[in-house]
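Hi V.,

Quick status before I head out on leave. The structure for the redesign project is tokenized and pasted below; the design run finished overnight.
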């Protein structure tokens, strides 16, 4: 059986340079469909069963976030359900995988994918619950639906907004939201039951459907980085942000969480609003209280490593959590998970993955409950 590499499926992305022999497979990272961003990859290798494969990503050193490949291991799966990490090295220029497949077909990806099919199935399962509704609030550049999940009574005292996957290659964000919604809809979960007595959740599981299907890391079908569009979103360039922003202004918001993944840092952390000029000591105390409660809720979460608070400038308000925090004066955070592993609690077989993102999503309900007042 000859060696073959394919990418023509949901989120597939790679450029084949050479693939005649298993021990000399050369690839290039493909750019986002409408932007000069190289990082995400997802492809299938066939015909190499039992052969010692050497797979080289020749342009890894020129990737948009090349330092993210330091200490990183590629994800692999035989069935697209169970993913594991494979031996990977990076010399600053070329990233190399050494792996001997046990089966005729194996998939490789930058991170465990979250498919559009699973996204639609998740919406269908959520809609069957009597306390949840799934609303169509707009369309993407390519014409896909923008769906909003509402869990709880819209007349509730507190409005909590959660959006995920503005950057489509950060698939851990949608795994996180799946876990959070599972816990929220679990009638046996006392934290959820208590929360829904006082709060309604507005959740956008996937802010960037087009980029997800196209195999983009960071942009939509118009080449827009949605997390730089919150001041002036447009129907032509960023309709995804436009419809969500309009809905937030319609409902109001008391807490806001924007879920992401970080290429370089092997930790789970949040970025806050302390650089905003109107950020009060009271809001800082509330932000710190939430972080402390989250660390108590999940050993996977920490506050030692993260982003340094940058100085305020108007461009910051193009980011979702900064725009919302500035406009509504509420607790507003960007939550980051690793593409690598959680260095504080490593699992060398799977690294950070979908299942661990799900558990971190479930764990956020307790700090939200404790931060309501």
């Amino acid at each position: 059986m000859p060696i073959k590499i394919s990418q023509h499926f949901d989120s597939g992305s790679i450029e084949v340079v050479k693939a005649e022999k298993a021990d000399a497979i050369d690839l290039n990272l493909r750019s986002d469909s409408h932007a000069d961003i190289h990082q995400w990859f997802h492809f299938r290798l066939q015909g190499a069963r039992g052969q010692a494969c050497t797979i080289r990503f020749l342009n890894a050193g020129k990737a948009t976030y090349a330092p993210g490949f330091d200490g990183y291991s590629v994800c692999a799966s035989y069935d697209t359900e169970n993913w594991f990490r494979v031996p990977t090295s990076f010399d600053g220029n070329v990233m190399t995988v050494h792996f001997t497949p046990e089966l005729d077909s194996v998939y490789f990806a930058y991170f465990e994918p979250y498919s559009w099919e699973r996204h639609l199935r998740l919406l269908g399962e959520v809609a069957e619950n009597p306390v949840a509704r799934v609303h169509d609030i707009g369309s993407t550049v390519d014409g896909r639906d923008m769906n909003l999940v509402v869990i709880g009574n819209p007349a509730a005292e507190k409005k909590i907004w959660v959006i995920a996957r503005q950057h489509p290659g950060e698939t851990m964000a949608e795994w996180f939201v799946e876990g959070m919604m599972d816990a929220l809809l679990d009638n046996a979960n006392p934290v959820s039951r208590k929360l829904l007595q006082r709060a309604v959740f507005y959740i956008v599981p996937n802010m960037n459907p087009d980029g997800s299907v196209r195999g983009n890391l960071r942009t939509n079908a118009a080449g827009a980085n949605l997390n730089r569009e919150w001041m002036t979103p447009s129907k032509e360039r960023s309709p995804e942000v436009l419809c969500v922003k309009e809905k937030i202004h319609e409902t109001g918001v008391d807490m806001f969480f924007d879920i992401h993944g970080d290429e370089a840092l092997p930790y789970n952390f949040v970025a806050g609003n302390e650089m905003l000029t109107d950020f009060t000591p009271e809001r800082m105390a509330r932000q710190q209280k939430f972080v402390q409660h989250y660390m108590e809720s999940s050993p996977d979460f920490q506050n030692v490593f993260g982003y340094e608070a940058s100085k305020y400038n108007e461009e910051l308000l193009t980011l979702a959590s900064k725009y919302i925090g500035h406009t509504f004066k509420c607790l507003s955070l960007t939550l980051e998970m690793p593409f690598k592993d959680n260095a504080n609690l490593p699992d060398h077989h799977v690294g950070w993955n979908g299942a661990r993102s799900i558990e971190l999503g479930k764990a956020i309900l307790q700090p939200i409950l404790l931060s309501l007042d």
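Above is the designed sequence. Residues 106 and 229 are 37 Å apart (CA to CA).

G. will cover questions while I'm gone.

Best,
W.
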